[in-house]
Structures are given as structure tokens and as C-alpha cells.
Design goal:
alpha+beta, rbstp2171, 3-stranded antiparallel beta sheet, 6 helices, 41% helix, globular
Length: 138
């Protein structure tokens, strides 16, 4: 792409009204247990309030400079536990689906937690790429 074409594309993206889809992004997930039974789930994007609450809840796990992690306990399970829901699972008193309990997620193999965390991070704008994009646009 030439610089001129790139500039035209950027101008097109910034001219005119912006349109956003307000439904939360979801991704179906099938988890196969050791006995072969399947757990049909889905990852769901958080709304802005819950994403910000999650970030605040994570603050104690970081050094005061915000860069170094001082406590890795549940760092991935915390995000997965508020993003992963089992299809057909019970609903809470407000009629919203209950997430898969953190105690269950803690028992997932590390490779599964890593992948679910990566997807949930991307969905919620918490991965490196999303953070860099947001900082460029602010």
C-alpha cells in the first residue's frame, strides 16, 4: 500500500458517521473432559463497566509502577471466570447467565487457560495490540 493510498484509507475511516454494533461479542468453546464428556461453553465480551472493574480488581497484583507483576495467582483464571459461560447453565437472580466457576477453571490444563485468556483478552480490548491501538487514538 502506498503512502497516498494509506492516507486516503485513513481519511475515509475518519470522515462520516461511525457505526458500532452494540451486541457483545461471543465465541463458542467446546471443552472435552478426560472421560470424553463435552462441556459446551462460550466466551463473552464484557461491557465497559465490568471490563474496568476487572482492571481495578487486578491492580493489587502489580508493582506500584504498573509494569511488573508481583502476584500471578489467578491472573488468567480471573479474566476467564468473568468471560466463560456454559450453554444452558443456571441464571442469577437478575436473569443473567452464571459464569463457569473459577474453581473449575483453575483445574483446566495450562494450555487451555492460556488460549482462553488470549481470546478473552482480545475480545475485551486487553491484549497488547488493543492497548497500543487505544493509546494511538487517545
Amino acid at each position: 500500500m502506498t503512502q497516498e493510498t494509506q492516507e486516503q484509507t485513513t481519511q475515509q475511516e475518519t470522515s462520516g458517521p461511525l457505526t458500532f454494533e452494540l451486541s457483545l461479542e461471543t465465541q463458542d468453546v467446546t471443552l472435552v473432559k478426560a472421560d470424553g464428556t463435552k462441556m459446551e461453553c462460550y466466551l463473552q465480551e464484557m461491557d465497559g463497566f465490568h471490563r474496568d472493574k476487572h482492571l481495578n480488581d487486578q491492580k493489587p497484583k502489580y508493582e506500584s509502577n504498573g509494569q511488573a507483576v508481583k502476584d500471578f495467582t489467578d491472573i488468567q483464571a480471573d479474566l476467564i471466570a468473568i468471560s466463560l459461560f456454559e450453554h444452558g447453565n443456571d441464571k442469577d437472580e437478575k436473569g443473567k447467565p452464571k459464569p463457569v466457576p473459577k474453581a473449575v477453571i483453575r483445574e483446566f490444563p495450562s494450555r487451555v487457560q492460556v488460549k482462553l485468556y488470549e481470546i478473552a483478552s482480545r475480545m475485551n480490548g486487553l491484549d497488547e495490540k488493543a492497548i497500543k491501538e487505544a493509546s494511538k487514538n487517545s
